[in-house]
UniProtKB/TrEMBL annotation:
Superkingdom per UniProt: Bacteria
PROSITE patterns tied to this protein: S_R_A_B_BARREL (PS51502)
Full protein name: Dabb family protein
Segments forming domain Stress-response A/B barrel: 2-95
Family annotation (InterPro entries): Dabb (IPR013097), Dimeric_a/b-barrel (IPR011008)
Entry coiled-coil feature ranges: none
Length: 97
């Protein structure tokens, strides 16, 4: 199993409602893309790295599921919305679990 964690930094002008919409849209991917075991997402509550407002975590069955997810149209639609919402930067990492 593989876990991907992504921290996303948005413009200061991005309203909280849009950040919550990013979280909601990301969570719906679990029911739309095969190979996803679990998705968790929310707003960052930590004082550390607080400039990254949204935290996304997804667990995949295997590397093939990760590869399919990356190019899947539903995922790409969420990626596009994140850009429209004012994404400035992101940090991502995958680990075996």
């Amino acid at each position: 199993m593989i876990q991907r964690t992504v921290l996303i930094k948005f413009a200061e002008t991005t309203p909280r409602e849009q950040l919550l919409e990013v979280v909601d849209r990301f969570k719906t991917l679990q029911h739309k893309i095969e190979g996803i075991v679990e998705i968790q997402a929310g707003l960052n509550k930590s004082e550390k790295s607080k400039e990254y407002q949204v935290v996304l975590m997804v667990r995949f069955e295997n590397q093939q599921a990760v590869d399919a997810y990356t190019v899947h149209a539903e995922h790409q639609a969420v990626v596009a919305f994140i850009g429209e919402a004012g994404r400035l930067d992101s940090i991502g990492a995958d680990i075996d679990i």
